[in-house]
Structures are given as structure tokens and as C-alpha cells.
Amino acid sequence: MMNKVTCLRAGAALSALAISALSMPAQADTLFDNINGMSISRDGKIHRFAAMVVGDDGRITHILKRDDKPPKDVEYREDGEGRVVLPGMVDSHLHLMGVGLATLSLDLSETRSLAEAQQKIAAYAARFPDRPWIVGRGWNQEQWGLDRFPSAAELDAAVADRPVWLMRVDGHAGWANSRALALAEITEQTENPEGGLIMRQAGSKAPAGVLVDAATSLVDQQVPPPRPEDRDLALYNAQTLLTAQGVTAAADMGTSIEDWMTYRRAGDTGHLTIRIMSYAASLPEMLLIGGTGPTPWLYQDRLRLNGIKLYLDGALGSRGAALKQPYADDPGNSGLQLLNGTQLRNLMSRAAMDNFQVAIHAIGDFANAEVLDAVDELSESYEGDRRWRIEHAQIVDPVDIPRFGQHGTIASMQPIHQTSDRLMAEARLGPDRLAGAYAWRSIAATGAPLAFGSDAPVEAPDPFAGIAAAMSRADAQGQPFGGWQPQETVSLGQPLAAYTSVGAYAGFGEGRFGELKEGQHADFIVVDRDPALNNPEDIRETRVLQTWIGGVKVYDARDGMEELKTETEDDAADYDPAEDYTMQADTAGEDTGEIGR
Amino acid sequence: MMNKVTCLRAGAALSALAISALSMPAQADTLFDNINGMSISRDGKIHRFAAMVVGDDGRITHILKRDDKPPKDVEYREDGEGRVVLPGMVDSHLHLMGVGLATLSLDLSETRSLAEAQQKIAAYAARFPDRPWIVGRGWNQEQWGLDRFPSAAELDAAVADRPVWLMRVDGHAGWANSRALALAEITEQTENPEGGLIMRQAGSKAPAGVLVDAATSLVDQQVPPPRPEDRDLALYNAQTLLTAQGVTAAADMGTSIEDWMTYRRAGDTGHLTIRIMSYAASLPEMLLIGGTGPTPWLYQDRLRLNGIKLYLDGALGSRGAALKQPYADDPGNSGLQLLNGTQLRNLMSRAAMDNFQVAIHAIGDFANAEVLDAVDELSESYEGDRRWRIEHAQIVDPVDIPRFGQHGTIASMQPIHQTSDRLMAEARLGPDRLAGAYAWRSIAATGAPLAFGSDAPVEAPDPFAGIAAAMSRADAQGQPFGGWQPQETVSLGQPLAAYTSVGAYAGFGEGRFGELKEGQHADFIVVDRDPALNNPEDIRETRVLQTWIGGVKVYDARDGMEELKTETEDDAADYDPAEDYTMQADTAGEDTGEIGR
């Protein structure tokens, strides 16, 4: 028997007739039935179910098969109308504040001409008169039909009163106006830095405005860091973007102390939506945050410092990845090793000593072998459940692949990188060294846990694009036909697990989230199709209809994504401490599970 | 009607027959009756009551007069046996980690000879073989009957293998061994630094071992900062010491980011006992912690960043306090102004802009006048409830005293300083400038809130010593007879309020703690005498029998104070993440109000 209120609430959740309310908590026990539900265990098995009951604490109390009787005492019923329900997606490698801060900077990626870009830059500067610097990204002179780089003077024409600094779409070049060049003290006397280039004006040594690679840091150093209010906005926007993509938990790879304090501010005031598995950007920051070990799970399992992120080498594109043999397209160069063997082991040991988890960026085959060596050695001193992580593991020497399985080393990989990088990878490595490139199937076959992510903001944080790439090794245009190195494709259960249950396990979140199981938080998404009944091209087009975290709806496609914020509303004017503090006391650390949006 | 369980629980709380359990939560509604209770409102009025009811959330639900009927539904009754119950004491100015870290260093204040000190130093070094430095304090060569300073060689005789650095009792000189001098690179070539002296060996320029004033920083710079585990121990010890003194809340004056993270670790794992009103040690730290404003009250009102601590001048003893006229005992010197007027106003303005509270150290009459000027000017731009605080306000020109009342500027003062400093103050100021010295009664008469504290670890954090000093202006020996400048004594209600309700108000804690009133946390102490029936000398001897915070007993004199910890028990050996995390998840931010001791 359902009374009117019940019908409305049921409506609000899934049916098209509904009035909708963002972040409406599923108060009291709520039965979600008539759903096509699936949960994926770490072994890649898909478990189907027809209904689930969520308690008022936002945790799943019952998972019901088609003919199971629901418990008597549920207060509310929500009709799923047969829609597909999946666990919330876990992105195992992204840069949360990077995703958010990008939304606060000027985006030129859509501009089709220099004039359009100049207009957009001027309008942006006028809109934000208080910003001391205008910072942006995404320009591409080829897209503008310009057969040269733009100049500082052309940027001055848009904004001259404040420094402007705009990164090219590939992140390898920056465009500065005269104020920015002056603040960075770049003159005709300035030499090109090691590994960098200062473009010069024709027939002179005067800087032209564009700086390449290492030279960009000359200006980067001058850009003031984001203000705390900018960081709060960035986190809000990042959460909005991710939940709209169906991502409910993420490993934050390289959390600075400022990032961490931003997450805590959000948690303390009830504004932390997604679940963050944090890896500190440095040893001092890890010790400052965690002190004597990982933090507890905070805010009803929404935040935990797991350990530290280390960088062993660079990236393939810029030939920084450390390879066993020189680059095919740069015979004198085998890449960069950012930590020597001793430094790597000391850092791993210092972290493991206090039970911090270690996640190591390793892209080249030399770097991967080095990490596997270190894990092998350290596993003797540090027993127990360590879950060493290798981030990216892009190029692995086939002889090293079996070693992933030996100590359960987690391979944290980003399928979409394969489709973006394949031509570049072929150029860098040549045809004979691709056997261990993005080798998902081979690594998984060793028994090593395979966790997938997006590396956002480097790539879009769309899990279904990642799943499609993992299954097809082809890009959105279906290139190359039949897939690149197709022997390394994986079948549906594997990428689904890598984006859910294994992602949670890789960050010590298993049992809390990652699966739709009794006792776990009700983190789930409603999507428009059943991945098991679709081919990769169609899976890539999956639409997320709703996203729920801890039994609370945080995204509904019918309302569209919430608008991203660009400015804090200034509350200083109508400031009343008493009121202020009462409001805060209600949410502060009280952990009601309600999302304070 | 009471069943057996009830009797036991009742017993556990107050009666002498009881089995006792530290931090036993008052689960369900508990009636504390047959008590001689008093609460003090901010106007200094004492409100008596005979019983109170504490709910299972640790808050007071009823305050009952002698003949009031208790509510029917209380589960437990605890017989106060007529004992005196006061609100938990609020210390409005101390250095929490300073109190704790002092317990981790070697204390030589009890040593009676150089030989005894050497023996104690050697034993301490043997006990802590892992400590890279041996750090201590409290030595006094006069107490040793030595007519000279001790030497580095005499310290080497105790410990030679590690650097040793020991501060004199007055904090104005440090005693280093040869390793410490070598690490600080102090040789015969080293010149005396400005404002400092390197004692030399007889007939040579070689350092003798003792460094005075500014020269001490040469070694201080070499001492490694405390490790996170040391900070955790320090906080544990500080809480143990303070609760044993009846202190249940404190304003932490100068919280570093490391301090703050230590408080959060304790809060996150359910080990934060007392209530901390935090004032950041610097503007960057304030912004890093609070970001866009004060933090919410965290952990059931146990932690909040209120704002920032600023230093405008130095101290009277070292003639650093900024005076309007030169020092009587140093005619060329009027003290130090550590911030000029513009810097002071800019910092106050930056903080107030985001509603952070500002607490300013001002000891000399010039410094106090300067702060009062700044408050007067800034009050025009920053309306609302700002609660500007002046810390110490020791020497105020009588013409400035009325200005405390104008904007409700809070005078945060430490009565015990008056009894410790009076002879020194007479020397520094001469007889004619004492009218506005430690002028509690005159400042309170302006209507300015008067908040009292201890400045621990500079003075012992004993509130009853402070209350006695405030009422008598005489020290523990009753000196001087009749009190020093007795016209500035205050009567009982004033210091009691300054240590409870006004202390809470001074840190935006009113309504949460500081009074025994319905809706406030049950923070109270049981003491062995009624302050209203005793003279100051006897009030100074008050014994705290029990201390309760949020309805949980955290100290019981019958058990004695918990032993202070000197080392972390190493748990890395039997490390089981799953267990570990489950334990943590239970307490993490869940805010059960239970103290996880």
C-alpha cells in the first residue's frame, strides 16, 4: 500500500512523471524495485538483481533477486521501470583539483580564429575584473588557420592591463602578453632554459610571446596560486562534472596540503559529495596530513588519505618515460628516471613503515621493471596487505608482466590513453616493442588487480569511453578498424570490475563501496542501456540518467547538470556570526550522510 | 526505582564506594542530583542549583532547583552526595602543544646539584636511545650552589654521543654539549649575535657551552622539529594535565599547521577530549586551515579555528614590551614594536574581511593604545560581532582603559602573571606607572569582557591559582601582605565568569559550553570546596575530584591522573589494515561524543 507522499517520493526518484529534488535523501528504508540491476565482483563476474532496499543511513540492507519477497517494513517504494542500475563508477586515477581548477580558467579550445580568441579573452577579462591574472588553455593556431604562433602584441590587443597566460591545447606551449613577459623578466637577454624555447621576434632576440616546454615554467612561477575560495569552487565544479558522468568515487593522485584542506572544508560543512581516496603529492605532505599513518575514513567514507603518489619517470609524448632501450625516434635518449633506485626504495620504505599505501607513476618499461624490483625487495620487510600500486604501467617489457602477479601489485591503468597515444607510441617505440604496451589482458591474466581510471583532466573522466576503449582498443571513430593490438582487449566484466569493485579495492574501499551488496553504501547510477546487450561502440554512448551516493540522488539528467560556479557569492555583507555558526554546527562533522547542496 | 545496574552506574560516577571507569559515557538520560551546583553568567552572577539531567548526547536537558521535581523518564541517577559542581574551566590563553611537548623533554627543575643533573641527563639519554637530540629545560646553577654557569665539557661527561640542548629555568639561556655546539657551527670565530651572548672559556674565545638570549637561536635552529608521533603524544599529555586541573576548554594561542593537523588526527580517531578554540600562528596558516572563514565547530564542539594570533610587542621581563615612555631601569629603551601601525591594520583587516577573529598580543601601554586605536578605526569598516581580543593587556595607560569598553574589546588576561611579575614590573616601570598594571577591576568596570587564562606552559594551568590571585593580588606565600595594588582585586563572581562563561564567549563558544544550562554540553567539575565559602588562600588549594566533558568522565582523583606517555607503542608489527580501518571507521568523525581513551 502506498500513500500519496510515497508515490511522490517514488516519482522523484526514477519515474519520468516525477517532481525531482536534487540530493533528496532516501529517508527511512526505501525499496528500489523493478530495476535491471547488476554488480560486478572483483573476479569480473556480473551479478544481476531486481531490487534493493536502502536504509536511512544510505547503506544497502537487501539485494533481491526476481522472485525474492521484499521485507515488510519498507516505508517507501521507488519504481525503477525496468531501468539499468550499475554501481557508481570508481575512477582510479585522476587529479580532482585539476579537473575543478580547469573549469575556472578560460577555455579557448572551441575558438576557430585568432580574432574570435581575442574577443573571448577580452570578454573574459571584463567579466572577472578582480582576477590579478587571466589564465587559460586550449588554443591551437592550426585550428585558427594561422600558419604561425600568435604574438604577445596580439594578446595585448585583447588585454594589456593585466598579465595573461594561455596554454596551448597540448600543454607544451604557452602564450603570454607583454605584462606576463615583463613580470617573468623575459627579455632579449634571457637565454633559452634547458629543455625549453623562448620564441623570438623576427630579426631580433626580443621574446615573441610564445614559450615552449621548459620555458613555460618562467611564467608559471609568476602566476599566483588559487585562492581558497577558488579551490572551494573548483571542488564543487569537479564534483558536479564527475557525478554527471556517473563517477561516485575517485583516487586523487597527488593531493597537496591545500587540496586536502579544501576537501576537509567541504566535508566539515557537508559539501563533500564523492568519495576521495587521496595520495599525497609529497612525503612532507603525507606526514603532515596523516602523521603516523593513513587517516581514518572520514565523513561516512567520503575521504581518506591512503598514502603517497611518487613519480619514477615522465611521459611517452615528451620522451620522458624511462625505457630499457633508446627511443625509436630519438636514438640518443632513453627517457628520464626522476628517482634513482635508492631514493625510490627509501621513499617506499618510509611510507610503508607507517602503513601508508604507495602509488608509483611508471610509464616506460625500464620504470615498470624498476618498481617491480623494488616491490619484490620491500615485500620481504613489509608483510601484510600493502597493495603496492603502479600508475599507468603503459609500456611493460613482456618478461616483466608475470611479476605483477607475484605480490598482487595493482595495475592502475587508463584505457583511453591507449586510443589517444597509439600513433605516438608506435613512433616512440617502433613496431617491435609494442607487445607489452597497454597490455590489459596480459597483466590481468597474471592475477594482478586491474584498476581503471581517466587521468582527468588529461582525458575526459567518462568511464564508458574507457570501458569501450578497453573492450575494442579502437577510438570514438572506430580507428583502427578491428582495434590496435587487439589481443589485449578485455571482455565486459573486466573493465566493469576495474571501474567499480577493483577500483574500490585498489584504494582500500572494498566493503564500503564499489559493489551493490548488503552493507555497502548505496552508490549507484541509472543508465539508458544494458552494457551486456551492447557492443563497445554503443557502450561508449551510454547516458547516465541518475547518480546516487550514499542513498542520496546527486545528479538527474532530467534536470541537466548543475551550472558550474565561477564566483563565490560574497556573504561577508550579511554576516551574522551566531546564525553562521549555528548553521555550521548543524552540518559540522555530524556526518548525517546528507549532501549539503 | 533503581535496579542493580543503575546503582553501579550511579556509584561509578560520584560515590566513594564505586568501581570507577574513566570516560564512561552517561548513556541515556542521567540525573545528577544531591549536588551543590553553581553556574556563573557573564555578568558574574552565581546561579545555584541542586540537580541536573544529562541526555545521551552529553548535553544538559534540565537544571533543577532544590524543590524541582526531576523528569520521570531518567534511566540513571547519580548521587552527588552534596558535593560542589562547577562548570568546566575555560583557559582563555595557553599554548596547548607547548604544554604537551614540555612533558616529552627532560625536566631538570628539581635537580639540586650539577652532579644530580648530570646523572639525570645520562639516565634520560639511556632511556631514549632513538631520540637524535636530547632536549630539556629547567636547570638553575644557583639552585645547584654553583657560582658559575655549567660547561659543555660537564655536559659531555653525561652525554657525548648525541647533541644535548637544555634551557635554563628562565628561558633566557641554553646549555649545549660539544656535539650541539659543533652542529650549530659555534666556534671561537663565531661572533656574538645582535642581542645575544656566547659564553667563552676562560682565557680563550672558544665557546664555553652556555648561550644567552639571541645566541640560543643558533642551536634552536638545529633541533629537529617534533615527529608527528611526538605531537600526538604531546596532545594526549596536555589533555591529561589540563583535565586533571579542571580545564575542559582552552584558547590555543598560535596554532601552527602541524598543531592543527595533530588536533584533527585526535578528533578523527575519537581522541580529542577538551574543546579547543584555535588562533592560527600566521596569516598563511590561518588561510590554509580556514580558507574562506573560521572552520565550523568540529567533533561535537571540540575544535574550531576562530582566527589569528598576532604579536604587536614583546614581554616586560626582556624589556620587549612597547611602552609610551622608556623603561625605568633602561632609560634608552621603550621596547619593541613587532608590527608597525600599517602592518597591524592590514593583518587585522585581512582577517576580519573573512570574519576571522583577531587576538593581538599587547603587553606595554604603547602596544595596548595602538591596538585600541586600530580597533576603533576598523570597527567602522567591520560591523557586527567581531570580538577583537587583546592578549595580556598587562600595562595600560589609565587614559586608555575606558576605551576597552567602547567596542566590547575582550581583555584576555592571566592573573597569575601579576603575582609572578610584580617586582619585575616595579623595576621596569617605576612606582608612578603602575596604576594601569594588571588592572582587572578597572578594565571590567568599562564593560569590556574579562577572560582569564594561564599562558601555560609559561605558568601552571591551574585555574584556582588564577582565581585566588585575581581576588587577592597576593602569591601562594601571601605576599605582599594585603595584596599588590589591591584596588584592582576582583570579587569571586568576576574571576569565576572569566574562567567559564566569558571565556567561552571570548572564543564564540557561548551557548555550547561555559555555563551549566539547558542545551549546553555537560562540561563540569566536582571540587572539594565551595569557593563562595572560602577565602582566596583556601580557594587556591581547591582539589578537583572529577572532570566531565560532554557528559563523559575524563578525570577522577580517586584513580589519580593518568600516566603521561613518553613513547608510542609500535603497532606496525601486528598491522592488519582491515581491522585497523574498521576500528577507525567506528570513531571517525562519527561524533558519538564518546572520548576514545
Write up this protein.
2 copies of one chain form a homodimer. By secondary structure, chain A is of the alpha/beta class. The first copy, chain A, has 2 domains: 117 residues, Roll (Diaminopimelate Epimerase, Chain A, domain 1), CATH 3.10.310; 327 residues, Alpha-Beta Barrel (TIM Barrel). Chain A has 19 helices and 24 strands. In chain A, the strands form 4 sheets. The first copy, chain A, has an 8-stranded parallel beta sheet with strand order 8-15-16-17-18-19-20-21. In chain A, strands 3-2-7-22-23-24 form a 6-stranded mixed beta sheet. A 6-stranded mixed beta sheet of chain A has the order 9-10-11-12-14-13. In chain A, strand 10, helix 4 and strand 11 form a beta-alpha-beta unit. The first copy, chain A, is globular, with a radius of gyration of 25 Å. Chains A and B meet through helix 7, helix 8, helix 9 and helix 19 of A and helix 7, helix 8, helix 9 and helix 19 of B. Chains A, B: InterPro entries: Amidohydro_3, Metal-dep_hydrolase_composite, Metal_Hydrolase, YtcJ-like.
